[in-house]
Amino acid sequence: PEVLVSVHEARLHYQVGGAFAAMRGKSTVVKAVDGVTFDIRRGESVGLLGESGCGKTSMGRLLLKLEDTTGGSIHFDGEELGEVRRHRLKKFRSRAQLIFQNPFDAINPRFTIRATLSEPLENAGIPRSEREDRIVKALELVRLPEPEQFLDRYPHQLSGGQLQRVVMARALILQPEFVVADEPVSMLDVSVRAGVLNVFRDVRDRLGLTAIYISHDLALVRYVCERTIVMYLGRIMEDGSTEDIVREPLHPYTKALVAAVPVPNPDQSHDPLPIGRGAPDPRNPPSGCVFRDRCPSAHARCASEVPEPRPVGSRLVACHLF
Ligand code: SF4
């Protein structure tokens, strides 16, 4: 089928405060993901955009079954992720991979590059005789020149950009169809970001990957993704083609994000948002529209009624103005 990933009313709610707080009536539920619905077509690249705490990383973890939903459903290639267990989970893990933000979340500093890249092959039961060849090919894929010279090196002997390519090679070595990249260049120097992003785009196109690119940075999402989903406090605010969103943002939150990015200069993408920094405490979101207390267009209805995403042209927008 055309759709690879189908998310329907997905929720990830969890208790904070523990048993003691619960006894005193103080525990609260954080709705990290709260009723999110979208489909991803095969070969599509979708950016998940929002400030920290908006639920984009939680959404990425749900998509890879690193966390289970507490409500709703996620289907991968027609199969409900909640039903995927044991041997089928192993198969799923080889088809869907995470590219980490921090290289040291993905690789052990005491392992050589060879050992780092052997591990997933070994876990997948690839015979030893084939591994070296696959490792060299994966390093070539991410454009590390003369891959053989890296095999016996340790992570600290590589530059940040080289290390992030190794992380990418590790995620790609089992030839997945679907990757979730979580802020993959945020730890890198601005000067090497473009190089790593170019490798990501190139590999994605060559392998025909379906990709989710998680970022707080609209300029980076624009560089990588044809479609963007804007999230805020666990909910989707706007979902549409990246060019439409950059050219004419509709949702007031998207407008603020776009206004903060003097596109196309990615170096200045950290200007303060015109609506002020920082989402409200996720344990205590506003009633009605979760964006209400920062929204310049908030009106009475926004306090009482949650806006559901509705089609506006070819986009979906969750706002009572539409
Ligand atoms: Fe602003 Fe109301 Fe739209 Fe929410 S629903 S974004 S508060 S106008």
TrEMBL record:
Gene3D superfamilies per the UniProt record, alphabetical: P-loop containing nucleotide triphosphate hydrolases
Record keywords, A-Z: ATP-binding, Nucleotide-binding, Transport
InterPro entries: AAA+_ATPase, ABC_transp_ATP-bind, ABC_transporter-like_ATP-bd, ABC_transporter-like_CS, Oligopep_ABC_C, P-loop_NTPase
Annotated region (Disordered), positions in chain: 268-288
Stored SMART domains: AAA
Subcellular location: Cell inner membrane
PROSITE patterns for this protein: ABC_TRANSPORTER_1 (PS00211), ABC_TRANSPORTER_2 (PS50893)
Molecular function GO terms recorded: ATP binding
Membrane topology: Peripheral membrane protein
Keyword ATP-binding: yes
Boundaries of every ABC transporter domain copy: 7-258
Superkingdom classification of source: Bacteria
Family note: Belongs to the ABC transporter superfamily.
Protein name in UniProt: ABC transporter ATP-binding protein
Originating species: Neorhizobium petrolearium
